[in-house]
Design a protein that fits this description.
By secondary structure, this protein is of the alpha+beta class. Helix content is about 45%, strand content about 25%.
Length: about 260
Protein backbone atom coordinates (compact mmCIF):
# COMPACT_ATOMS: atom_id res chain seq x y z
CA UNK A 1 0.00 0.00 0.00
CA UNK A 2 1.34 3.49 -0.90
CA UNK A 3 0.59 6.73 1.03
CA UNK A 4 1.14 10.44 0.41
CA UNK A 5 4.37 12.48 0.80
CA UNK A 6 3.14 13.82 4.10
CA UNK A 7 3.19 10.38 5.54
CA UNK A 8 6.66 9.77 4.13
CA UNK A 9 8.24 12.40 6.35
CA UNK A 10 7.52 10.23 9.36
CA UNK A 11 9.79 7.50 10.75
CA UNK A 12 8.95 3.83 10.11
CA UNK A 13 6.14 2.59 12.29
CA UNK A 14 5.64 -1.01 13.38
CA UNK A 15 2.52 -2.39 14.99
CA UNK A 16 2.87 -5.92 16.39
CA UNK A 17 0.29 -8.47 17.36
CA UNK A 18 -2.71 -6.89 15.70
CA UNK A 19 -5.64 -9.38 15.77
CA UNK A 20 -8.00 -9.59 12.87
CA UNK A 21 -11.24 -11.44 13.68
CA UNK A 22 -13.08 -13.29 10.93
CA UNK A 23 -16.37 -15.17 10.85
CA UNK A 24 -15.06 -18.31 12.56
CA UNK A 25 -11.30 -17.70 12.86
CA UNK A 26 -8.90 -15.17 14.37
CA UNK A 27 -5.58 -14.11 12.72
CA UNK A 28 -2.70 -12.13 14.25
CA UNK A 29 -0.44 -9.88 12.07
CA UNK A 30 2.46 -7.42 12.45
CA UNK A 31 2.12 -4.12 10.42
CA UNK A 32 5.22 -2.23 9.26
CA UNK A 33 4.80 1.29 7.74
CA UNK A 34 7.93 2.78 6.04
CA UNK A 35 8.61 5.79 3.69
CA UNK A 36 9.97 5.06 0.19
CA UNK A 37 13.09 7.06 -0.82
CA UNK A 38 14.09 5.07 -3.84
CA UNK A 39 13.31 4.99 -6.73
CA UNK A 40 12.69 8.66 -7.23
CA UNK A 41 9.46 7.96 -9.04
CA UNK A 42 8.04 6.50 -5.81
CA UNK A 43 9.62 9.01 -3.46
CA UNK A 44 7.01 10.56 -1.23
CA UNK A 45 5.06 7.29 -0.98
CA UNK A 46 5.02 4.83 1.92
CA UNK A 47 4.93 1.06 1.97
CA UNK A 48 2.79 -0.88 4.40
CA UNK A 49 3.76 -4.52 4.99
CA UNK A 50 1.53 -7.06 6.74
CA UNK A 51 3.40 -9.99 8.29
CA UNK A 52 1.37 -13.00 9.46
CA UNK A 53 2.15 -14.17 12.94
CA UNK A 54 1.85 -17.92 13.39
CA UNK A 55 -1.10 -18.50 15.68
CA UNK A 56 -3.68 -21.24 16.14
CA UNK A 57 -7.08 -20.39 14.68
CA UNK A 58 -9.83 -20.36 17.22
CA UNK A 59 -11.77 -23.12 15.47
CA UNK A 60 -8.74 -25.40 15.22
CA UNK A 61 -7.89 -24.80 18.85
CA UNK A 62 -11.40 -25.78 19.79
CA UNK A 63 -11.12 -28.80 17.53
CA UNK A 64 -7.90 -29.84 19.19
CA UNK A 65 -9.52 -29.39 22.57
CA UNK A 66 -12.38 -31.62 21.49
CA UNK A 67 -9.87 -34.17 20.14
CA UNK A 68 -7.94 -34.08 23.40
CA UNK A 69 -11.18 -34.50 25.34
CA UNK A 70 -12.23 -37.39 23.08
CA UNK A 71 -8.82 -39.02 23.57
CA UNK A 72 -9.18 -38.75 27.33
CA UNK A 73 -12.67 -40.29 27.13
CA UNK A 74 -11.41 -43.17 24.99
CA UNK A 75 -8.50 -43.70 27.38
CA UNK A 76 -10.91 -43.84 30.31
CA UNK A 77 -13.17 -46.30 28.52
CA UNK A 78 -10.19 -48.50 27.59
CA UNK A 79 -8.99 -48.48 31.20
CA UNK A 80 -12.45 -49.41 32.44
CA UNK A 81 -12.67 -52.23 29.88
CA UNK A 82 -9.25 -53.51 30.95
CA UNK A 83 -10.34 -53.49 34.58
CA UNK A 84 -13.51 -55.40 33.66
CA UNK A 85 -11.50 -57.98 31.70
CA UNK A 86 -9.05 -58.35 34.61
CA UNK A 87 -11.97 -58.89 37.00
CA UNK A 88 -13.47 -61.54 34.72
CA UNK A 89 -10.11 -63.30 34.37
CA UNK A 90 -9.69 -63.31 38.13
CA UNK A 91 -13.19 -64.73 38.60
CA UNK A 92 -12.45 -67.41 36.00
CA UNK A 93 -9.19 -68.33 37.75
CA UNK A 94 -11.02 -68.63 41.07
CA UNK A 95 -13.74 -70.82 39.49
CA UNK A 96 -11.10 -73.04 37.88
CA UNK A 97 -9.25 -73.33 41.17
CA UNK A 98 -12.48 -74.25 42.97
CA UNK A 99 -13.36 -76.80 40.29
CA UNK A 100 -9.86 -78.29 40.46
CA UNK A 101 -10.10 -78.61 44.24
CA UNK A 102 -13.53 -80.25 43.96
CA UNK A 103 -12.21 -82.68 41.35
CA UNK A 104 -9.24 -83.56 43.54
CA UNK A 105 -11.59 -84.12 46.48
CA UNK A 106 -13.92 -86.29 44.35
CA UNK A 107 -10.96 -88.35 43.11
CA UNK A 108 -9.76 -88.87 46.66
CA UNK A 109 -13.23 -89.98 47.74
CA UNK A 110 -13.46 -92.33 44.75
CA UNK A 111 -10.07 -93.83 45.54
CA UNK A 112 -11.12 -94.32 49.15
CA UNK A 113 -14.37 -95.95 48.03
CA UNK A 114 -12.52 -98.20 45.60
CA UNK A 115 -10.12 -99.22 48.34
CA UNK A 116 -13.06 -100.06 50.60
CA UNK A 117 -14.91 -101.96 47.86
CA UNK A 118 -11.90 -103.91 46.63
CA UNK A 119 -12.07 -106.61 49.36
CA UNK A 120 -15.81 -107.00 48.72
CA UNK A 121 -15.24 -107.35 44.98
CA UNK A 122 -12.55 -109.95 45.58
CA UNK A 123 -14.86 -111.87 47.91
CA UNK A 124 -17.69 -111.71 45.37
CA UNK A 125 -15.33 -113.00 42.68
CA UNK A 126 -14.30 -115.91 44.89
CA UNK A 127 -17.96 -116.76 45.63
CA UNK A 128 -18.75 -116.66 41.91
CA UNK A 129 -15.81 -118.94 41.15
CA UNK A 130 -16.81 -121.34 43.92
CA UNK A 131 -20.38 -121.53 42.62
CA UNK A 132 -19.19 -122.18 39.07
CA UNK A 133 -16.85 -124.94 40.23
CA UNK A 134 -19.62 -126.41 42.37
CA UNK A 135 -22.07 -126.52 39.48
CA UNK A 136 -19.45 -127.99 37.16
CA UNK A 137 -18.49 -130.66 39.67
CA UNK A 138 -22.14 -131.65 40.10
CA UNK A 139 -22.58 -131.82 36.34
CA UNK A 140 -25.67 -129.66 36.64
CA UNK A 141 -26.39 -127.46 33.63
CA UNK A 142 -27.90 -124.09 34.62
CA UNK A 143 -29.68 -121.53 32.47
CA UNK A 144 -30.79 -118.08 33.70
CA UNK A 145 -33.72 -116.23 32.14
CA UNK A 146 -34.76 -112.60 32.69
CA UNK A 147 -38.26 -111.53 33.70
CA UNK A 148 -39.48 -111.43 30.09
CA UNK A 149 -37.90 -114.87 29.59
CA UNK A 150 -35.01 -113.94 27.28
CA UNK A 151 -31.80 -115.89 27.80
CA UNK A 152 -29.55 -114.11 30.30
CA UNK A 153 -26.59 -116.49 30.78
CA UNK A 154 -25.80 -120.20 30.96
CA UNK A 155 -23.17 -122.56 32.36
CA UNK A 156 -20.93 -124.96 30.41
CA UNK A 157 -22.82 -127.97 29.05
CA UNK A 158 -25.96 -126.02 28.17
CA UNK A 159 -24.87 -126.08 24.54
CA UNK A 160 -25.18 -129.88 24.67
CA UNK A 161 -28.91 -129.62 25.47
CA UNK A 162 -29.71 -126.53 23.39
CA UNK A 163 -28.05 -125.32 20.21
CA UNK A 164 -26.64 -122.33 22.08
CA UNK A 165 -23.98 -119.85 20.98
CA UNK A 166 -22.87 -116.69 22.85
CA UNK A 167 -24.84 -114.45 20.48
CA UNK A 168 -28.08 -116.14 21.63
CA UNK A 169 -28.03 -114.04 24.81
CA UNK A 170 -31.23 -111.99 24.78
CA UNK A 171 -33.24 -114.48 22.70
CA UNK A 172 -36.18 -116.50 24.14
CA UNK A 173 -35.12 -120.01 25.05
CA UNK A 174 -38.17 -121.31 23.13
CA UNK A 175 -36.63 -119.97 19.88
CA UNK A 176 -33.57 -122.19 20.27
CA UNK A 177 -33.46 -125.80 19.08
CA UNK A 178 -33.38 -128.26 21.99
CA UNK A 179 -32.33 -131.91 22.30
CA UNK A 180 -34.91 -132.39 25.06
CA UNK A 181 -38.35 -133.87 24.44
CA UNK A 182 -40.02 -131.12 26.45
CA UNK A 183 -42.60 -129.31 24.30
CA UNK A 184 -44.35 -127.73 27.30
CA UNK A 185 -41.15 -126.02 28.55
CA UNK A 186 -42.31 -122.48 27.66
CA UNK A 187 -45.68 -123.06 29.33
CA UNK A 188 -44.00 -124.28 32.53
CA UNK A 189 -41.66 -121.26 32.50
CA UNK A 190 -44.61 -118.83 32.44
CA UNK A 191 -46.43 -120.76 35.15
CA UNK A 192 -43.45 -120.59 37.53
CA UNK A 193 -42.90 -116.92 36.75
CA UNK A 194 -46.49 -116.11 37.73
CA UNK A 195 -46.63 -118.27 40.87
CA UNK A 196 -44.25 -118.79 43.81
CA UNK A 197 -44.01 -122.57 43.19
CA UNK A 198 -41.37 -124.40 41.19
CA UNK A 199 -41.65 -127.10 38.55
CA UNK A 200 -39.71 -130.37 38.38
CA UNK A 201 -40.00 -133.01 35.66
CA UNK A 202 -37.98 -135.93 34.33
CA UNK A 203 -37.46 -135.36 30.62
CA UNK A 204 -35.82 -137.61 28.01
CA UNK A 205 -33.39 -136.37 25.38
CA UNK A 206 -33.27 -137.36 21.73
CA UNK A 207 -30.03 -139.31 22.28
CA UNK A 208 -31.46 -141.56 25.04
CA UNK A 209 -30.28 -139.56 28.04
CA UNK A 210 -32.58 -138.44 30.83
CA UNK A 211 -32.61 -135.19 32.77
CA UNK A 212 -34.43 -133.82 35.77
CA UNK A 213 -35.52 -130.33 34.71
CA UNK A 214 -36.17 -127.98 37.60
CA UNK A 215 -37.62 -124.49 37.01
CA UNK A 216 -37.37 -122.07 39.95
CA UNK A 217 -37.96 -118.32 40.44
CA UNK A 218 -34.82 -116.20 40.56
CA UNK A 219 -35.18 -114.21 43.80
CA UNK A 220 -33.25 -111.01 44.50
CA UNK A 221 -31.92 -109.90 47.90
CA UNK A 222 -35.17 -107.93 48.27
CA UNK A 223 -37.11 -111.19 47.74
CA UNK A 224 -38.43 -110.04 44.36
CA UNK A 225 -38.77 -112.37 41.39
CA UNK A 226 -36.37 -111.16 38.68
CA UNK A 227 -36.46 -114.12 36.30
CA UNK A 228 -36.05 -117.88 36.31
CA UNK A 229 -33.33 -120.44 37.04
CA UNK A 230 -33.47 -123.68 35.05
CA UNK A 231 -31.33 -126.64 36.14
CA UNK A 232 -30.80 -129.81 34.14
CA UNK A 233 -29.46 -132.80 36.10
CA UNK A 234 -28.35 -135.86 34.18
CA UNK A 235 -30.14 -138.90 35.67
CA UNK A 236 -29.40 -141.31 32.83
CA UNK A 237 -27.38 -143.66 35.05
CA UNK A 238 -30.13 -143.76 37.67
CA UNK A 239 -32.72 -144.40 34.99
CA UNK A 240 -30.65 -147.24 33.52
CA UNK A 241 -30.06 -148.75 36.96
CA UNK A 242 -33.75 -148.57 37.75
CA UNK A 243 -34.57 -150.24 34.44
CA UNK A 244 -32.06 -153.02 35.15
CA UNK A 245 -33.52 -153.57 38.62
CA UNK A 246 -37.00 -153.69 37.14
CA UNK A 247 -35.85 -156.25 34.57
CA UNK A 248 -34.13 -158.37 37.23
CA UNK A 249 -37.19 -158.24 39.47
CA UNK A 250 -39.37 -159.36 36.59
CA UNK A 251 -37.04 -162.29 35.79
CA UNK A 252 -36.82 -163.23 39.46
CA UNK A 253 -40.60 -163.19 39.73
CA UNK A 254 -40.92 -165.46 36.71
CA UNK A 255 -38.35 -167.84 38.18
CA UNK A 256 -40.19 -168.08 41.47
CA UNK A 257 -43.50 -168.69 39.76
CA UNK A 258 -42.01 -171.47 37.66
CA UNK A 259 -40.91 -173.38 40.78
CA UNK A 260 -44.32 -173.44 42.30
Amino acid sequence: MLLTERSAKKKPITVKGLKIDGADTSQTVDINVQAIAEPEALRGMVMIVFNDVATTPVKRAASRSKTALSGETISTEVEEELQRVRAELQATREEMQTSREEQISANEELQTMNAEQQPKMEELSRVHTDMRNLLNSMEIVTIFLDNDLPLCRFTPGADKLFKLIPSDIGRPLSDIVSNLRYPELSEDERMVLQTPVFSEKQVPATDGRWFTVRIMPYRTMEDVTAGLVLTFTNITAAKELKAELRTENAELKKLLESKK
